Amino acid sequence: MDDERTEELGSLTAIFPELIIDPTNPFTATLELPIAPTTPLLARFIPASTSETESAHVEKDVRLTQLPPLTLHLNLPESYPNDAPPKVELKAQYDWLPKEKLAELEAEVASLWEEYGHCQILFSYIDYVQQAAERGFDFHQSAAGCLVLQADQESKLVAFAAQKEQENFNKGTYDCGICLEPKKGSACHRMKRCGHVFCKSCLKDFYNNAITEGNVTGVECLDPDCGALDANGRRMRVKKHRLVHPRELLAMGIEEPMVRRYVEMKRKKKLETDKMTVYCPRTWCNGPAKSKKYPPIPADLTTYVDNEISDDSDDANDIPAAPATDPAIMKVIDDVDRLAVCEKCELAFCRVCYNGWHGHYVHCRPRNPGELTAEEKASYDYIAKHTTPCSYCSAPSSKTHGCNHMTCKRCLTHFCYLCGAYLDGQNPYVHFNTAGTTCYQRLWDFEEGDEGQAPRDERGLVAPQAPEFADEDEDDAAEAAAARAQAEENNRIIFPAAPAAAPRNDNPIMVAMAQFDWLAVLNEEEEEPPRNARERVARRHRDRLARNPPGRGAAQAVRNHERGRGGGRRGGQAGGGNRQELEQRQQAELQRFLAMAARDEEEGWDSDELGNDDEDFVIPRR
């Protein structure tokens, strides 16, 4: 009588031709069981570590229609089937099936042997495993609701599923959606996004012509209803145009140079339509700046990352179109990163002012003021007129009250609010105590804030001004007013308006003239004692004028009105503002003489124009 084990293995070989019997042991066999769930199995790939520095993967859910097969090892003991069940061992390729599930499947063979009354149960057990595979091994009923795997297994399983799907597709026969002829699956291509089938010959002809003519938007699915129907089969108002990915073009047989041309044109079109794209300021380059949103095209197109969104459709991730000077966009640029690097010539420049890179601390404005709105232009003009730039980072600073020693909030640099000079943080006030400088004894000028009263030059710095003339004796208001009037008249007579400087030649000769300290002489001259209170007040104000001449103009009148009578004393510049005016006028006259001498016209110049009169240079008697 034949052995029951041999009879059962023979029957299994007829049903499963792929069953392999071990030649060294006729009662040991191996069978490979394919796994193709009826409903795509949901697999969740999680990172191997929760630390961001140790793992760059993120949690991702993927639905798999094909999974690596299970290998079933059968061993029939001598007491099988009457006294002992068969021994089975299951192994999953790539170890995608958890060990707990494998142990559960292996334990089921003993339950079936007991249930069937100690008889042959190999076919029933194989059928049980196959039905469990079609149900996805019931992972949808687990606590996680899906198959949970490590992230490093994703690429293997996804690649295996794609390969098996392609093998199954090549075995079938399909009607081309363009030429309408039936063809084998190996000669056809199924679009990955929508599943429409066309023969490769028709697709290559159409896409090659579209890319050659520059019709980037034409590289899409050729089915008329593709993108026009929703998930329920209802027609949508607007058809969604989705372009074909470069990897799919390579898969259907289009040559690599043609696909690279398609990628370059697609990227160029996206750069041109994106309002946030900036271009190199060099006229001979004009290349786009490097961008993470539009990375450069790699040498291997299979690794090219593309959002697969058509150029004529709205991408939710794109920044909305807005002018380059939109305050919101300008704030994003200013807060995030203003540095731009040209991807062609590697020039580093600023995205806002398009000048060479000046660092993050420098405050700049758009290169083309014509693009500004009236409100934006008024804001920039106000900042330029009523603020002083930091001496290090050029950040605008405004003073509402206090002294002229400023500290930049951006870079913590100490600087002078009047002239913008850099100040030593250890001793910042030496700048205001150094005789001969424009800010000498002007620490408290515009103490209440300039409020637009301080005139500024084109750099935004406060123009040097003479200190104000303050009243001292409120009891002798009339005498003080008369003395001020007389001082103004004396100042006008002694220092008349300087004539306009003549135009300089190309190479002017700069000559500095020695000035005589006539104010010191006036202070040293012996005078008779005052005869009355009026003369005493007049002399006191005359001395003040020599040391600290009064300011002039409407701005000075507004400051006097705001501060009222009896204001605090202000220190003047060394030697008085009038001395500087005299020196500037004499230098201008000397330069005019040199210019006339270069043209042989010095005979028409009068030497008296260097000073008011010869009395200014008389040596006093001791």
Automatic annotation (TrEMBL):
Residues 7-136 form the RWD domain. Its EC number is 2.3.2.31. PROSITE patterns: RWD, TRIAD, ZF_RING_1, ZF_RING_2. It is an enzyme of class 2 (transferase). Gene3D superfamilies: 1.20.120.1750, Ubiquitin Conjugating Enzyme, Zinc/RING finger domain, C3HC4 (zinc finger). Residues 600-622 have a biased composition (Acidic residues). Keywords: Metal-binding, Repeat, Transferase, Ubl conjugation pathway, Zinc, Zinc-finger. Residues 569-578 have a biased composition (Gly residues). It comes from the Eukaryota. Pathway: Protein modification; protein ubiquitination. Belongs to the RBR family. RNF14 subfamily. This is RBR-type E3 ubiquitin transferase. The lineage of its organism: Eukaryota, Fungi, Dikarya, Ascomycota, Pezizomycotina.
